[in-house]
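Run log, item B.
One chain of 403 residues. Sequence copied directly from the ordering sheet:
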Amino acid sequence: MTNAEYQDSYSGDPDIAAIDKAEVGRKLLIDGLERRIAGQFSVFIPVGVIGWIASLTDNRALWIFLGLQIISQLAITASSQWLLRAIKAGQKSTIRKNLWMVAEASSGIIWAAMMLDVGTLIGGSDAVLTTWVTILVTMVVSVLLAAPIAGIAFPLLGGFTAAVAAGIWLFGKDFSSFAELALAFMCIALFILAKAVNLQAHKSCHDGIEVERLSQRLAEELRRTSWLSQHDRMTGLLNRSALQERIAELGDIPTPLILLDIDHFKQINDSYGHGQGDEVIAAVSACITETLDKTAPDALAARWGGEEFIIALPECNVPDHQADAAEIAESLRSAVAKLTHQDWPARLRVTGSLGVAYGPASAFSATFKSADSAMYDAKEQGRNRIVCADDQNGKVIKPARAA
């Protein structure tokens, strides 16, 4: 991968993208729906308590409301799962959300109806009083747990409040003035508390998203910095230090080396400018990468400096390692000699001289000197050719192939 390709794949922006309310609301809603589904069965605890008390008081209306509440809770569970799937899949969810809110509001209405039914019976009956307290506590806890997500808390509380108001002022349920005032204050206080918690939840969620994005940005920057520390910025090949580090890890593994130097590069710079020279270096490095991907996928390629490249071939799989390295070098020479570009000057020709040497990775310095000597011999013999060094004493011998 070249540096330009790495920059194209890099998703980080100089500034963190703005976080809109819709994104925060969506995240809160998903979190709320998941928690609602996970904790839904806890609602059946107060339902069971009230059912037990209803059996003691023989209150048929309470039994009816309990049945409706069970149906309501099942509807909430089903609609929550249905809505959650739509949101995660990125589908339109208006109808599903409305049905879910209706189910939540219905639950609040039923809780209120149950409370109104037993509220007028409170006197010396411990069972009725226990039922009343259980309903109130259940509603308060439900609203507080749902408060971070307005879509859960407000329909639930709204249905409860509307039913209480209708029961007292429209249907004439017999409550003391104190009880009516207490209920009114409780509903108002729950609305205010739910709104405050909801605003705090939005802020916390917004901050959480921002922290998450900053963490992702930091991780991308660390990966980018790590990549740049090991690669040449112009070509995307390994840099000198990274290559040496990787070779040092190979120990005594047979590791032939190929050195490639672009022929007459100074003339290219002098005749066509340094910008053209940079384009040639980038094109040769891309050619090296493409050729090695086909002939030696495990090879380590690096820009050694200027117009000079080095290729390490750990553990060539052919018995005659020298011959195998020479064949790969010939593939590189041939590919470089064919380089051209429609925007390049018509007279511009690019070739390379290559030196090949064989030795273990632990003897990198000696092998490099042999390859370097062989490469200079290739230049002296006319360029655009490869020369292999004798792996016995480092002596440069005749070229393996020439153009």
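Observations after the first pass:
- The chain has two domains: 3-214, 240-402.
- The chain has 13 helices and six strands.
Flagged for discussion on Thursday.
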